[in-house]
């Protein structure tokens, strides 16, 4: 029986290998190209590097890459923290309290997920100028937080609905107030949802380009996606340099995802139980 079971799993293993090739090959080509010279890349773009060189990484680190990297890290981290706090608190009454506008308010958050964010680019640009936050990294946080809250509230709400009410009732009997009940009892149980919301929004904010392009105007306040333009010349493109910058820029995302991937899967599964 064990042998038959292993045979029956062969198609799944083959499918997993095919998916690994399709998803891993682009990253492999990105990393391998970063160790090539410009001439070697132009002559053999798909081959493995014959002469490993760190010139592209030296060029990246000697440029303003670290400035762009730190700006993206600050904006992404601060935005994600604010999103988690606001979304978790907003989801608590939607998931645990019964009131007349419960369902309409939840629907409003669902509608917020359907709004094309780039249709709001001009109003947000004018608002950012009027409040004096144009060309600052802090001016990026507001739009990022606003557009990340709807999906985050939905995830937290669905996850909170899975927590037994008996746990909350026991805490209330012991004299626990709403604020302490949420932060001391319920919020620690939301670790899978927190990991899901954090990684999902961190990746989106880290890679965002359009708002960063419109709301900033100087190299000092540019984020990493904007900084990659530094490797584009008027008549040529430093492809190995771009690949080196992309490799370094993707390391935080890969590190955080590999550390929290188990909680992410649990959070997505828990959030999809109820609709």
From TrEMBL:
The chain crosses the membrane at residues 12-35, 73-94, 106-131, 137-160, 181-203, 239-260. Residues 69-260 form the ABC transmembrane type-1 domain. Keywords: Cell membrane, Membrane, Transmembrane, Transmembrane helix, Transport. CDD domains: TM_PBP2. GO terms for cellular component: plasma membrane. Coiled coil: none annotated. GO terms for biological process: transmembrane transport. The keyword Methyltransferase does not apply. SUPFAM superfamilies: MetI-like. It comes from the Bacteria. It is found in: Cell membrane. It is a multi-pass membrane protein. This is ABC transmembrane type-1 domain-containing protein. It comes from Geobacillus genomosp. 3.
